[in-house]
């Protein structure tokens, strides 16, 4: 990979009144990678993400997305990105097909609901309402809405929170497929095992600062090199492996 | 990717989504169609709005004399014969019977012996009966005078030379009054409740935030929602007018033109009422605070704007209040258009006051409306 930056964030600051949520962070996201933004709650992940997504005003700093400045070219950026919000709802009383039609209209792009739902394996739910879906289906549908405008980048804010192991794995596969099709993915998560297997690179955010940015592998190697040892030796498998092994990879629809 | 972004297309996409959503929301359909129709059916069947004076006829009263016959023919007087003397006396005291009459057997050439009991409990209705009776007496008396005249050379001069004429006019049915009022109220509740609920819930469930991550413009969201609500309400109004016209004989003087004029008025009214809805969606913290605030806006207008009874029935001080409310003017304009055949140019006074309300409420709405 040529490591061509598609998102550049320089000295980004965001204040809410006296409270500094983001205190001058800088990082780059490379084209075609899955980039993880990791950190505890209140670290400033979502704020940073929403500023890049043009949903929130920055206080100072520079952000460019696919060559466009968020300050002057928000509209061009909106056409090039797909956004999945944490806990966002969808227009009430509409089924999935109708929601896809709505978003096609909002993006000004002609896509058939069948095509979009097909990408996330929800064709059989075309006539279902969003609230009738299971957790995993809801997240997959949200991802379908982010793909309507053939975005260069999609942003996923905690897409796997609350999902069972099978649904989580299923979503990882979907996210990898999207990356492999050439779309850059920016994701936040609280699950480090997820970041480890899914992300090409991760940045740790804490207290409004970036405190480290690298590939998961190198982070782990560096820590091990310092002589770090787990209190309990890891075995060749963990309990989640047991869970998957016992209950099967087959994804359950509730 | 390079195709020009089309705001109209986005607006229409929202309008279509919103319209579908409204059609599937039971409360919208109930408030906009079912309630007005129920009120219309109930009030249309109470009928005529005419008054009726219930008069008990005492047991054994003579029913062959001309006074009784005249009373029986009078449309206002409702004669009751199937109650016992005791029941009648009790009902008279309660006011559920307005008077009791008793008539002695008719003897030719003798005055008709007659007694009437009135009740304080039944208000003005006693006086109505009194004047009906006087009228009958006068006619009978006049006939007797005429007979006497045949034998006398001295003409008896008339004290009053009364000439009565009846102008032929359209019958103003109660449906002509109640239907525009119900239409106005349907628009008021759809505009206020519907708009407030939709925008509040779209904001709270982050639907609007998700929209903002697309290239859609803010005005497209407002316009799309407004368009859907207007189309839905106009279809509802059309349905109510058609049911009113074909089932209850609601007067539409110039037919289709009148209907179109009414729909224009509906649109104007709805746009103003949606202004209240936008304001409420901004003020309300959550969905449970929408109904109380909305009721503060809708209830006074429901009661005071001539929805069920004419504003002129209120005491003068209350009429002043009524004449400030936007629904009063919408109702007045609607009645003028429907019944008197006025065009929109003839209701400029009402339209002007609605315009003032529109400017006022949207000035407030712009200040209070919240996107996030």
Automatic annotation (TrEMBL), chain A:
Q: Which InterPro entries match?
A: AAA+_ATPase (IPR003593), ABC_transporter-like_ATP-bd (IPR003439), ABC_transporter-like_CS (IPR017871), ABC_transporter_ATP-binding (IPR050763), P-loop_NTPase (IPR027417)
Location (main, coarse) = membrane
Decide whether keyword Cell membrane is in the record.
yes
Superkingdom of origin: Bacteria
**One Pfam family linked to the record:** ABC_tran
Report domain ABC transporter positions: 7-232
Q: Which GO terms describe its molecular function?
A: ATP binding; ATP hydrolysis activity
Please tell me whether the keyword Translocase is annotated for this protein.
yes
Annotated SUPFAM superfamilies: P-loop containing nucleoside triphosphate hydrolases
One GO term of the cellular component aspect? Answer: plasma membrane
Alphabetical UniProt keywords: ATP-binding, Cell membrane, Membrane, Nodulation, Nucleotide-binding, Translocase, Transport
- Protein location: Cell membrane
- Member of which family? Belongs to the ABC transporter superfamily.
Q: What protein name is recorded for this chain? A: ABC transporter ATP-binding protein
Q: Which organism is it from?
A: Mucilaginibacter phyllosphaerae
TrEMBL record, chain B:
Query: InterPro entries per the record?
Result: ABC-2_transporter, ABC2_TM, ABC2_TM_bact-type
What are the ABC transmembrane type-2 domain coordinates in residue numbering? 122-372
Name the Pfam families for this protein.
Answer: ABC2_membrane_3
How is this protein situated with respect to the membrane?
A: Multi-pass membrane protein
Gene Ontology CC: one annotated term: membrane
Keywords from the UniProt entry: Membrane, Transmembrane, Transmembrane helix
| Cellular localisation | Membrane
The residue ranges crossing the membrane are: 28-46, 183-206, 227-253, 259-284, 296-318, 351-369
Statement: the UniProt record of this protein carries the keyword Transmembrane: yes
What is a single molecular function from GO for this protein?
ABC-type transporter activity
Asked whether the UniProt record includes Membrane among its keywords, one would answer yes
Domain of life assignment? Bacteria
Q: What is this protein called?
A: ABC transporter permease
Q: Which organism is it from?
A: Mucilaginibacter phyllosphaerae
